[in-house]
C-alpha cells in the first residue's frame, strides 16, 4: 500500500477565480478595451493645445471679464473724484481725522479686485476702506407722537467696533441720559437701545453719535450725527367722578386708560383688565367695599397686588403696586387707600392694572365703574 500523495495536477479549467469560470473571450475583450482607451488619450494629447480645456460658451451680448474690470475702475474713479475739492487734492469729507488715509488711486489688488488704493501704492497694495457713515437714526429726525416704549437705534454703512460705538452713542432728554439695554443687529451695522423705562410723555429726545465711534476695521466715523424727536403726549383722562356712585363703585385711580380689556398690545396676550396710567407712588383706592383676600405676591406677573372680595363671586384685582397699605382680612370701604402705583411684576412702566372677575371669569371693569 503506497503512502505517497497523488501528484497535484494543473487547476481544472483555465481562468478559474474564487470558484467562478471566466470565459477566455471575455478576458480578451477587456484587454482590447484597455488598448482603445490608451489610444484615445494619446490622440487627444496630440490634437489639443496644452492650454485647451472645457469652457462654457459665452452668452451672446455678454461682456468679457476685462470689460467688467473696466466698469469697476470707472465707478471707483467717480467715487474718488467726488472726494476731491480742488487742484491740490484737498479732502472734503468732514471728520476725516488721524488714522484715515485718503485714497488717491484706483487699482487691482492681488485677488484681482478693483478698489481705492493708498497714495503711492502699486497694483498689489491694500485697499483703503471708506470711513463708516451714519445711514439713519430711528425714530427719525422730527418725528412726533413717538411711542413711549419705542426702541432707539442707529444704522451705519459698515460693521462697527462695539466698545467705541457704544460709548459714542447717546440718547438724552435735556441733560439726562436715557439708559437701557444695548444690542447689535444686522452684522454689527445697527446698534439698538431699549430704554430701561418708558420715555416721558411729550419730551424731546436727542439721539447722537460722536466722532469717537470706529468701524470694526478701525476707521473713525466720517462725521458726528444727531437727530431729535418728540414722545407722544399724555392721553386725556376719561371722565370719572371723584366720589362713590350710587352703585357703590368708584375709580381706583384717576388717569388715562393705556390698555383696555381684551386688547393684545403686549406679549402677554388677551388683556384681562384695564391699565390706568399713573406715577409711582400715586394712591390706589378700593373700587368697592369688601374684604381683602390677597395682599402681596400672588402670581408670576402681577407683582405686588391686592385682591378684594365683594361677595356674590365678584372680586377686584389691583396689580403692579409699589407698596401695599392693607392686609389680608381687612374690611375696607370704597375709596380706602390700599396701595401705591408701581411697576412690579410684568410691567413696562408705572401703572395700575385693574381687573374684575365674576365667578372666576374676567369681565370688562368698565361695566361697573361710573362713567
Structural class: alpha+beta
> Into which percent range does the helicity of residues fall?
10-25%
Beta content comes to 25-35%
The separation of the N and C termini measures 132 Å
What is the string of helix and strand elements? Answer: EEHHEEEEHEEEEEEEEEEEEEEEEE
Largest sheet: 8 strands, antiparallel
CATH superfamily of the domain at 257-367: Glucose Permease (Domain IIA)
Q: Quote the average pLDDT.
A: 76
- Would you identify the CATH architecture of the domain at 257-367? Distorted Sandwich
Protein described:
There is one protein chain. It contains 3 helices and 23 strands. By secondary structure, the chain is an alpha+beta fold. Among the domains are: 47 residues, no CATH class; 97 residues, Immunoglobulin-like (Sandwich), CATH 2.60.40.1220; 111 residues, Glucose Permease (Domain IIA), CATH 2.70.70.10. The N terminus is likely disordered.
Outline the fold blueprint:
Elements: E1 16-17, E2 20-21, H1 24-47, H2 65-81, E3 105-108, E4 114-117, E5 134-138, E6 152-156, H3 162-168, E7 169-173, E8 176-177, E9 180-185, E10 190-195, E11 204-209, E12 225-230, E13 257-259, E14 274-277, E15 283-285, E16 290-297, E17 304-309, E18 314-321, E19 323-324, E20 331-332, E21 337-340, E22 351-358, E23 361-363
Antiparallel strand pairs: 1-2, 3-4, 5-6, 6-10, 7-8, 7-11, 9-10, 11-12, 13-14, 14-22, 15-21, 16-17, 16-20, 17-18, 18-22, 19-21, 22-23
Amino acid at each position: 500500500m503506497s503512502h505517497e500523495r497523488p501528484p497535484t495536477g494543473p487547476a481544472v479549467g483555465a481562468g478559474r477565480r474564487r470558484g467562478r469560470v471566466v470565459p477566455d473571450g471575455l478576458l480578451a475583450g477587456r484587454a482590447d478595451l484597455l488598448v482603445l482607451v490608451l489610444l484615445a488619450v494619446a490622440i487627444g494629447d496630440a490634437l489639443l493645445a496644452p492650454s485647451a480645456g472645457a469652457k462654457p460658451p459665452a452668452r451672446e451680448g455678454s461682456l468679457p471679464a476685462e470689460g467688467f474690470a473696466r466698469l469697476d475702475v470707472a465707478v471707483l474713479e467717480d467715487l474718488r473724484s467726488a472726494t476731491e475739492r480742488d487742484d491740490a487734492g484737498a479732502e472734503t469729507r468732514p471728520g476725516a481725522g488721524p488714522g484715515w488715509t485718503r485714497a488717491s488711486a484706483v487699482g487691482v489688488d492681488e485677488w484681482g479686485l478693483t478698489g481705492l488704493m493708498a497714495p503711492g501704492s502699486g497694483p498689489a497694495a491694500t485697499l483703503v476702506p471708506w470711513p463708516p457713515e451714519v445711514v439713519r437714526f430711528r425714530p427719525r429726525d422730527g418725528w412726533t407722537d413717538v411711542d413711549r416704549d419705542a426702541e432707539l437705534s442707529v444704522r451705519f454703512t459698515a460693521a462697527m467696533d462695539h466698545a467705541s460705538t457704544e460709548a459714542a452713542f447717546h440718547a438724552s432728554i435735556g441733560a439726562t441720559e436715557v439708559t437701557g439695554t444695548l444690542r447689535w443687529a444686522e452684522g454689527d451695522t445697527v446698534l439698538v437701545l431699549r430704554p430701561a423705562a418708558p420715555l416721558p410723555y411729550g419730551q424731546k429726545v436727542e439721539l447722537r453719535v460722536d466722532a469717537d465711534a470706529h468701524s470694526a476695521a478701525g476707521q473713525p466715523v466720517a462725521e458726528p450725527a444727531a437727530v431729535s424727536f418728540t414722545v407722544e403726549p399724555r392721553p386725556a383722562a376719561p371722565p370719572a367722578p371723584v366720589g362713590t356712585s350710587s352703585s357703590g363703585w368708584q375709580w381706583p385711580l384717576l388717569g388715562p386708560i393705556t390698555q383696555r380689556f381684551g386688547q393684545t398690545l403686549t406679549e402677554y396676550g388677551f388683556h384681562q383688565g384695564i391699565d390706568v396710567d399713573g406715577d409711582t407712588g400715586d394712591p390706589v383706592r378700593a373700587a368697592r367695599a369688601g374684604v381683602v383676600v390677597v395682599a402681596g405676591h400672588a402670581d408670576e406677573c402681577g407683582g405686588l397686588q391686592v385682591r378684594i372680595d365683594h361677595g356674590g363671586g365678584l372680586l377686584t384685582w389691583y396689580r403692579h403696586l409699589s407698596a401695599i397699605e392693607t392686609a389680608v382680612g381687612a374690611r375696607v370701604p370704597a375709596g380706602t387707600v390700599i396701595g401705591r402705583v408701581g411697576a412690579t411684576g410684568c410691567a413696562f412702566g408705572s401703572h395700575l392694572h385693574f381687573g374684575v372677575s365674576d365667578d372666576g371669569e374676567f369681565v370688562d371693569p368698565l361695566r361697573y365703574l361710573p362713567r
